[in-house]
């Protein structure tokens, strides 16, 4: 999709109609007569996100492009690897579309260890959509309580949850159909170059519940995905058998691939995308994960670490990089 169409067709007109994010954001919604028909919008969005063009929607009807391959030959490991999931006819267009149309953040935060505060700069662009299972969005974007189906109390969240735009929601629905799980969150990472990374961690937070299923899509540059077993607890008695042997896993994730991590995987294994020097990594990679957060803490956590309090970034096709967005245009873009 050309930038011109994006800017002229959706960006500017919808901006002027965008409702203000007031104090009562939980009940804010977009009046239906001002909803753009071909883009998703919400008071929490810096700018609207176009719906998928029919070329993408039509091609996604053929996903998953391959059957998933189980990788479960090591202790506590339960993966299904779709190589690829996204049909080869469309993975490039999907990558370009999402990089062009989504808004991203470069989150900084501080962590406290004892008396010492450390400042952390997340080494990649991130964005997030969704809300935990205690709430859901009405079709017009109002946050409702899952039990009473009435607008949530104003103090439920300190963050401002955002509904999935139509494009990511279409991918969520597809993913649910092929993974036997449901999801209420979509996290997106953009690794602009080989210098961007995610260090070893597991998605084992309590707010995901036990044995969470996480579906993780790759688009764009090929990057290595490493997994290793968490350290086993020390033996309690000298007569205890030694822990089982495990091997590090390396998957060279290509554009269109999807890895489903499920069962006991998150409780026992760590995963990472290490930094790389030069090569294909410089072309940029998008990672999309679908997850299900059960309680409010998950919503607060995901928005804190994937939106944060800093500025918005959007892709500038002319410059070939993410640029700060300054309320109407991306910096450096012409009129
Ligand atoms: O980029 C990837 O493939 C992994 C992303 C990831 O581990 C995460 O978002 O927790």
TrEMBL record:
<dbReference type="InterPro" id="IPR005123">
    <property type="entry name" value="Oxoglu/Fe-dep_dioxygenase_dom"/>
</dbReference>
<feature type="binding site">
    <location>
        <position position="289"/>
    </location>
    <ligand>
        <name>2-oxoglutarate</name>
    </ligand>
</feature>
<dbReference type="GO" id="GO:0051747">
    <property type="term" value="F:cytosine C-5 DNA demethylase activity"/>
</dbReference>
<feature type="binding site">
    <location>
        <position position="189"/>
    </location>
    <ligand>
        <name>2-oxoglutarate</name>
    </ligand>
</feature>
<feature type="binding site">
    <location>
        <position position="285"/>
    </location>
    <ligand>
        <name>2-oxoglutarate</name>
    </ligand>
</feature>
<feature type="binding site">
    <location>
        <position position="201"/>
    </location>
    <ligand>
        <name>2-oxoglutarate</name>
    </ligand>
</feature>
<dbReference type="GO" id="GO:0006307">
    <property type="term" value="P:DNA alkylation repair"/>
</dbReference>
<feature type="region of interest" description="Disordered">
    <location>
        <begin position="1"/>
        <end position="41"/>
    </location>
</feature>
<feature type="binding site">
    <location>
        <position position="271"/>
    </location>
    <ligand>
        <name>2-oxoglutarate</name>
    </ligand>
</feature>
<feature type="binding site">
    <location>
        <position position="204"/>
    </location>
    <ligand>
        <name>substrate</name>
    </ligand>
</feature>
<dbReference type="GO" id="GO:0035516">
    <property type="term" value="F:broad specificity oxidative DNA demethylase activity"/>
</dbReference>
<feature type="domain" description="Fe2OG dioxygenase">
    <location>
        <begin position="182"/>
        <end position="294"/>
    </location>
</feature>
<dbReference type="GO" id="GO:0008198">
    <property type="term" value="F:ferrous iron binding"/>
</dbReference>
<dbReference type="InterPro" id="IPR037151">
    <property type="entry name" value="AlkB-like_sf"/>
</dbReference>
<dbReference type="InterPro" id="IPR032852">
    <property type="entry name" value="ALKBH2"/>
</dbReference>
<dbReference type="Pfam" id="PF13532">
    <property type="entry name" value="2OG-FeII_Oxy_2"/>
</dbReference>
<feature type="binding site">
    <location>
        <position position="291"/>
    </location>
    <ligand>
        <name>2-oxoglutarate</name>
    </ligand>
</feature>
<dbReference type="InterPro" id="IPR027450">
    <property type="entry name" value="AlkB-like"/>
</dbReference>
<feature type="binding site">
    <location>
        <position position="191"/>
    </location>
    <ligand>
        <name>2-oxoglutarate</name>
    </ligand>
</feature>
<protein>
    <recommendedName>
        <fullName>Fe2OG dioxygenase domain-containing protein</fullName>
    </recommendedName>
</protein>
């Amino acid at each position: 999709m050309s930038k011109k169409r994006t800017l002229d067709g959706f960006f500017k007109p919808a901006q002027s109609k965008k409702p203000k994010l007031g104090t009562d954001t939980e009940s804010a919604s977009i009046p239906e007569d001002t909803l753009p028909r071909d883009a998703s919008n919400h008071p929490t969005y810096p700018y609207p996100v176009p719906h998928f063009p029919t070329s993408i929607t039509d091609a996604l009807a053929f996903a998953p492009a391959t059957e998933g391959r189980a990788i479960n030959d090591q202790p506590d490991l339960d993966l299904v690897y779709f190589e690829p999931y996204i049909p080869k006819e469309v993975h490039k267009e999907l990558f370009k579309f999402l990089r062009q149309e989504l808004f991203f953040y470069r989150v900084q935060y501080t962590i406290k260890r004892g008396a010492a505060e450390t400042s952390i700069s997340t080494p990649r662009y991130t964005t997030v959509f969704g809300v935990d299972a205690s709430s859901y969005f009405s079709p017009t974007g109002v946050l409702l309580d899952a039990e009473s189906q009435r607008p949530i109390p104003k103090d439920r969240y300190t963050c401002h949850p955002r509904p999935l735009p139509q494009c990511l929601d279409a991918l969520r629905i597809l993913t649910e159909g092929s993974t036997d799980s449901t999801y209420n969150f979509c996290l997106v990472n953009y690794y602009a170059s080989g210098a961007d990374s995610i260090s070893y961690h597991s998605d084992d937070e309590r707010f995901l519940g036990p044995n969470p299923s996480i579906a993780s899509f790759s688009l764009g540059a090929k990057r290595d995905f490493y997994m290793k077993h968490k350290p086993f607890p020390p033996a309690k008695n000298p007569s205890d058998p030694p822990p089982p042997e495990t091997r590090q896993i390396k998957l060279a994730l290509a554009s269109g691939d999807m890895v489903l991590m499920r069962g006991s995987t998150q409780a026992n294994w760590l995963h990472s995308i290490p930094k790389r020097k030069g090569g294909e990594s410089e072309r940029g990679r998008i990672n999309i994960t679908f997850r299900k957060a059960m309680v409010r803490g998950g919503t607060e956590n995901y928005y804190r670490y994937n939106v944060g309090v800093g500025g918005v970034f959007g892709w500038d096709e002319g410059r070939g990089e993410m640029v700060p967005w300054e309320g109407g245009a991306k910096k450096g873009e012409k009129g």
